[in-house]
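Contributing new records

If you add data, match the layout below exactly. Sequence lines come first and carry their own label; structure lines follow with theirs. Keep one chain per record. Anything else will be rejected by the validation script.
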Amino acid sequence: MMTTQPEFDIEAAHKYFAANCFNKAWDLIDKARRSEEEDEQMLQMNQASLYHWLQRKDCNPVNLSVGYWQTSRIYALLGRPDEAVKYGLLCLKYAKGQDPFYIGYAYEALARAEMMAGNTDKAREHLARAKEAAGAEPDEDNRKMLIADLQSIA
């Protein structure tokens, strides 16, 4: 029988699993070749990360923007453009009002998803907005990273 209060620090557990699951999903994103099981695990790790972020008292729009960006990227990698667009839009929702870096990545996610869906006009619009945000990003390393990712969208 489960007790109502666990014997561990729930806040610490959410903090640990939010980051750990995000990083494990990222490792799988970076892997050149994944098995079907790894593809599924990549998605599950991302979903677990988002769940744990949503349980944290310090969760903010930036955290959600980054989490939803990762979800959109994973769905793009899995060849599921409808879901990639859906989570790209959630990313943008939480990126609005944040630094240009987050706004740029929201548009990057949407451009990648729309390109994959065959909506080249929409993809180009999102790319233009992402490039505009990249130009407004004051941190040189962040700007370079965003521009490199934008260049990877075919």
